[in-house]
Design brief:
The protein has 486 residues and is α/β, with parallel strands linked by helices. The chain is built from 14 helices and 15 strands. Strands 4-10-9-8-7-5-6 form a seven-stranded mixed beta sheet, sandwiched between helices. It has a four-stranded antiparallel beta sheet with strand order 11-12-15-14. Strands 1-2 form a two-stranded antiparallel sheet. Helix 10 links the parallel strand 7 and strand 8.
Length: 486
């Protein structure tokens, strides 16, 4: 006889409390309701909704299962920005490719962990194939290893973590005492570098900012000056360069940074390519020259490859280092037999144990588009960014000012102020505020602080599938209307 525990006593099978379950037919109906809600959502980039409105909606939900799901879908799709709208060019990601969405549905239903080969053998083999593709085509190597992470921040943190282990392997057991380690990174680098220093006990005071040049790239003279100084003080060094800075999309001079790493012993070079590593598949491969010689590279598949949020990957040329730096030989015997750990047991090479299968989406994207299709998708984005830049330069009446010649898919602009007592920077901020105050808007664009000019800029990102020359003109017309009404 089977027994169940309930309210502190044991009940037999015939006496246990029945749990209300959703019938299979009801589940199918709920899926259809969600799809219908998704299809009828507003095509505008943004619908302005205050948080109190959302709170009230969530406080008054129906009891019926189908009605509950339908209402929740309407709230979620209706009150969030539409990442699929071509006028939404504010984020480094957009709507996932349909094949990636379907992959997410498969893994959602299966709900298997990717931490061990035995728990998800299919995911283990898929990961192997995806990693091989990325190492060959992005990292440009025939050897090396990789691991998926929860996103770009985790991948950067892991890249710095294995760099620390490479330079100071004793830290794993002894901690950070008697360790002299600094991280050198651009003032335009992503804040995940500081977060990694905090998490890993390196300390944010040991993150040394490097000046950037007129294009937003790391200044090599300042970098070498700092490397020379800290090397003379017997510090070991981690350089975190960037391929695709958050604001300007600048790509650091990777080859030159590798040469400096080789010049000064005890230096690790990580590339944060979360946004811009896909330039390796772009129209000018020279942008990524030297990437194959970096110690580690991180990339986000949910950005340029349009997989589901969030899918980060860390690659390194030092085979075996991920396992050596991350596996706990004493604490995971219940999961891994130390004599039989497979190279496909990805939890043993990661800072995660239970891992969702993030890589099926990328695998199906590769299978459906092939390398040629991926290159075409990325190069189309380059063409849109270039065309937008030309439109800004040729715009009549001087509405706009171009703030950067893009390395990647970021085009930064300002709105030219018609007032003598208001700067372009201040006027650009006021235009953004006007857009945000509108109940509905065809335009969603990000206001950023540009460290090169020390001014406010509008950052325009070109990864939208629906973006073309016609929609670029429409976007600019809507932006001009906002300028005229500010």
């Amino acid at each position: 006889m089977a027994f169940y525990f309930y309210n502190g006593r044991i009940n037999s099978r015939n006496e246990h409390i029945k749990i209300k379950k959703m019938k299979r037919e009801t589940f199918k109906d709920a899926i259809l309701v969600i799809i219908k809600s998704y299809r009828r959502r507003d095509n505008r980039a943004r619908v302005a909704i205050d948080l109190d409105t959302i709170r009230k909606q969530l406080d008054n939900l129906p009891d019926d299962m189908i009605e509950l799901v339908a209402r929740m879908a309407d709230i979620y799709f209706g009150y969030n920005p539409n990442n699929e709208a071509f006028g939404n060019i504010s984020r480094l990601f957009t709507q996932p490719l349909p094949i990636a969405q379907l992959a997410g549905f498969i893994t959602l239903l299966a709900n298997n962990s990717g931490g061990t080969t035995k728990s998800n053998p299919t995911a283990a083999v898929i990961a192997e194939k995806v990693f091989t593709f990325l190492i060959h085509n992005i990292y440009r190597r025939t050897d090396g290893e990789a691991i998926d992470t929860s996103g770009g921040m985790a991948a950067v943190c892991l890249g710095i973590k294995i760099g620390r282990h490479f330079l100071y392997p004793q830290v794993k057991k002894e901690g950070m005492s008697n360790v002299k380690l600094v991280i050198l990174t651009s003032i335009d680098a992503h804040y995940s570098v500081n977060a990694a220093a905090d998490i890993l006990g390196i300390g944010t005071n040991n993150v040394i900012p490097i000046k950037s040049d007129h294009g937003g790239r790391m200044n090599l003279v300042d970098l070498e000056d700092k490397m020379k100084f800290y090397s003379s003080q017997e510090y070991k060094i981690i350089i975190s360069s960037t391929m695709g800075t958050t604001v300007r999309g600048a790509i650091d001079k990777i080859k030159n940074i590798n040469e400096l790493r080789d010049k000064y012993p005890n230096t690790w070079h990580h590339i944060d390519g979360s946004w811009g590593a896909l330039a390796a598949l772009g129209p000018d491969p020279r942008q990524c020259e030297g990437i194959e010689n970096a110690d580690s590279v991180s990339i986000d598949l949910h950005k340029g490859f349009r997989c589901l949020l969030t899918t980060g990957v860390l690659m390194t040329k030092h085979e075996g280092l991920l396992f050596e730096a991350n596996y706990s030989r004493d604490g995971a015997k219940y999961l891994y037999n130390s004599n039989k750990i497979s190279l496909l047991d990805n939890g043993a090479r990661s800072i995660e144990c239970g891992k969702p299968d993030r890589l099926l989406g990328m695998f199906l994207v590769i299978e459906s588009l092939k390398l040629a299709g991926l290159k075409e998708m990325i190069r189309r984005n380059y063409k849109n960014a270039e065309y937008f830049m030309k439109c800004i330069l040729n715009c009549e009446n001087g509405y706009f000012k171009l703030m950067n010649i893009p390395d990647y898919l970021n085009v930064c602009i300002q709105c030219s102020s018609p007032f003598d007592d208001i700067s372009d920077s201040q006027f650009t901020e006021e235009v953004q505020e006007f857009i945000l105050e509108q109940r509905e808007s065809d335009v969603m664009i990000e206001l950023c602080d540009d460290t090169v000019s020390n001014q406010k800029v509008l950052r325009c990102i070109f990864i939208q599938e629906k973006m073309n020359q016609g929609s670029i003109h429409y976007f600019l017309e809507k932006l001009i209307i906002a300028i005229d009404n500010t």
